[in-house]
What we know:
The structure holds 2 protein chains of 2 kinds.
Chain A: E1 2-7, E2 9-11, E3 33-35, H1 37-53, E4 56-63, H2 67-77, E5 81-86, H3 95-106, E6 113-117, H4 128-136, E7 140-150, E8 153-159, E9 165-171, E10 174-178, H5 190-196, E11 201-205, H6 206-209, H7 237-251
Parallel strand pairs in A: 1-4, 1-6, 4-5, 5-11, 6-10, 7-10
Antiparallel strand pairs in A: 2-3, 7-8, 8-9
Chain B: H1 15-43, H2 55-67, H3 76-110, H4 117-148, H5 157-184, H6 195-204, H7 209-233, H8 241-250, H9 283-291, H10 297-301, H11 303-306, H12 313-324, H13 333-337, H14 339-344, H15 350-354, H16 361-376, H17 382-394, E1 415-416, E2 425-428, H18 431-435, H19 437-452, E3 457-459, H20 469-473, H21 477-493, E4 498-501, H22 504-511, E5 522-525, H23 526-535, E6 546-550, H24 564-572, E7 575-577, H25 607-617, E8 622-625, H26 628-640, E9 648-651, H27 652-657
Parallel strand pairs in B: 1-3, 2-3, 2-4, 4-5, 6-7, 6-8, 8-9
Amino acid sequence: MNILVCIKQVPDMESKFKVNGEGNWYDSAGLAWRMNEYDEYAVEQAVQLKEQAGGDLTVLCIGPERVKETMKKALAMGCDRGVHVADDDSYKKDPFSIASIIAEHAKTKSYDVIFTGLQSQDRGSAQVGVLTAESLGIPSVTTIVGFEFANGTITVKRELEGGVKAVVKLPVPALVTCQLGLNTPRYPTLPNIMKAKKKELITVAVADLLKESALEETQALYFPEKKGGGLVLEGDIGEMADKLIKILKEKTAVLA
Amino acid sequence: MEATREIYWNVGHGWTTLVPMYLLTIAAIGVLAYGGMQRVKVYRLGKPIDRTDDLWQRIADAAATVLGQAKVIRVRWPGLAHGAFFWSFFVLFIGTSLIVLQADFSDLLFDIKFLKGTFYKLFSISLDLAGLLALVGMGALFVRRYLVNSAALDSNWNDAFMHGLLFLILLTGFVIEGARMAVTELGTPLSYWSPVGLVFAKAMSGMEATGLQQLHVFTWWFHLLLVMVFIVSIPFTKFRHIATIALNMVFADRGPIGKLQTIELENEEAESFGAVQLTDLSWKDIFDTDACIKCRRCQDRCPAYATDKPLSPMKVVSDLGGVAFSPTPDANLIETVGRDALWSCTTCRACQDICPAGVEHVGKIVEMRRNLVLMEGEFPGDEVMTAMEATEVNGNPLGMGYASRGDWADNLGIKTLDEDAEVDILYFVGCYASFDKRNIAVARSFVALCQAAGIKVGILGKEEKCCGEPMRKMGNEYLYQSQAMENIETIKAYGVKKIVTTCPHCFNTLEKDYRDLGLTAEVVPYVVFLEQLIASGRLQLKSEGFSCTYHDSCYLGRHNGIYQPPRTLIAKAGGQITEMGRNRDQAFCCSAGGGRILAEEKLGSRINIKRVQMATEAKADVLVSNCPFCLTMFEDGVKGAGVEESLRPRDIAEILVERVVQPSARG
């Protein structure tokens, strides 16, 4: 089994964000970096699949030099080799460009299963996985919270609105995007951290893989405007409940 | 006639006595040696560790501890009973040795007798009274073990056998003496130098001389046989503690107290880290299990055990001993001890501190945790793994953005070393005082105190990382070392000479653990630093009365013996301390040591609430502590115990800063 997992390095969400000089993304100074949370589920599932079915597991990440640190964690978790697509401007790329880069890499490698996160914590487009599958002409399922593989067939659970789950079967090759609840990502063991330092980690220039033009461009990034404060109800519980119902009726549609 | 007695009176000193006696003795010592060697083989399964450096000093210290029964008598009455028995048995041993020396060597070979005259009288009365004292001590221990407090001790056949054998040896000794005296000494002034023997002699004085002689010779051989049984049984019963504890004192960890073994992480040949098999432990760890006499002192002081968690330090040691001395010592140590027991430890060191056998509990527990974390990626809960990952990303277990680490010091007029490295002290703030609102108040108080004393304080700000202590105690040596290396590199680059900490965990880690990784700067805990500032007059306080109780944190207290400086500071501030029952080296942990600050306390009852209840019993208004973990736990604990209205947890620095006399106001 030949497996690919695509990860992204994102800032820790506790960081203090500032808009960059160009006004189209956040400033990367003073940020702590980590693996995109949804990609951690993807890596864990990919490693579990490899442990179950055997084969070779590649981790791919697009970004500047620093993303290698995050790739090392994926290698320590159990990926066999890494492909770093060197791109200092990856933050400017739209989901279609990113998907095209991945597809360009994947098209000659005949991966049986490709794992991605449901979305990134910073851009949150949730498009890269499905666009990659479309570019490769393979089926894809999004938002998986359960994964099984047997006899060349993947069976996944998808999370739908309101807690409803759907079970979907699809043949390999296929792509899945992973959601919270799929698994608990493992903590890398020390021997695996040490082994990861010696695993193959090749770097490819983004120009070698980017054959498509962007379809969209981020025009501006800004903090939400501060709106009026909240409303605090005080007084007798009965009165407060009456006030609340009145507000809900007047200002919302929840009681309609 | 000169005072003396005939050695081997009535028994005879010919070949018929000496040959069987010495054959028996040689056989007994042979069995002792064989049994001992069998156990040494098991100790040798452990990994090497150097515990014989500075050997003569070790032996001298061990002799002082053992002969003085220093550790045994820390628990007063049972300790003194054991001491009474030990000291008197020691006198009896010396007395018997003198007899052997005279009868079988000096007299036999050179016609020299020294057991005569005044020396004989002193010899006689010393041994006589020692025998009595031994019976009294043993009687007291018997009463405690079997009559008064039988539930407080684990008793098995070992204990009954030891009591029975020793009692018979002492009793037969007096019967022999009494029979001899009834025939040879009764009515002479010499008999008063053997008062206990005299009582036995008078009791037997109605018997015929021949009957007495028969009784004497029979009891003499029986007594000899009992002593042989004693020698033989040493390696096979708890009597072995005579040897193992004495040796364990020689092999003691000579500090620094609580410093863990630093693992060589880059060692390419290491296939396994931490302990899961017996052979992963050191020989000293295995030896410890043979020194334990199950006195329960550790268990009685364990905060986890006291709150119904599945940890007893005594059981950990006996579980490991059970594996070591089983026919096939390859059982999984972690499975045997149990994960919940291992994760429950707060590394408070109460067990190790009190242990009269010199057993080192904490290191073993951390070694097994290391195996769980480094080899299996296991933690006591997901929240702990999250904290570990947060530390990897942001250098603090709270998950706060690293760049805001220095924000607490805004408007205080102190700079980071990056801005100005010419400072009197580097304040190593720690994670809680940097990010936790309650503890930021402590950091700001400490800085204000330094400023009032004219001390120029610098901090590392966003360059400071977690010291790594909670991670290390949880077993995550890799993460600890990566944090430590970064801190040490930063500190060294600024040429820091003196570091002051407000967190005892940071202090213990920088002062002891970081030395293995190359930190050389002086490290001082804030209570000591502030005490020095007051003593030198640089810091002046006005005394304003208040009543409080004081909690000794485990890491200033038992780990560093700093008990008096904080009490001096409180007294200077006008504080009247009502001590809790468990104070100083007996203090009860707040629950957050050993990396437990990162974990939820899901098993048993809450340790912090129990400690707060102890503080409540002291009937003080304020619970003063010196550690950010303790403060956090007590703020939570007063709510849990429902006493937040009457008991206020505060740090020493907060109390002092309210009473500081600013330089401008000084007369």
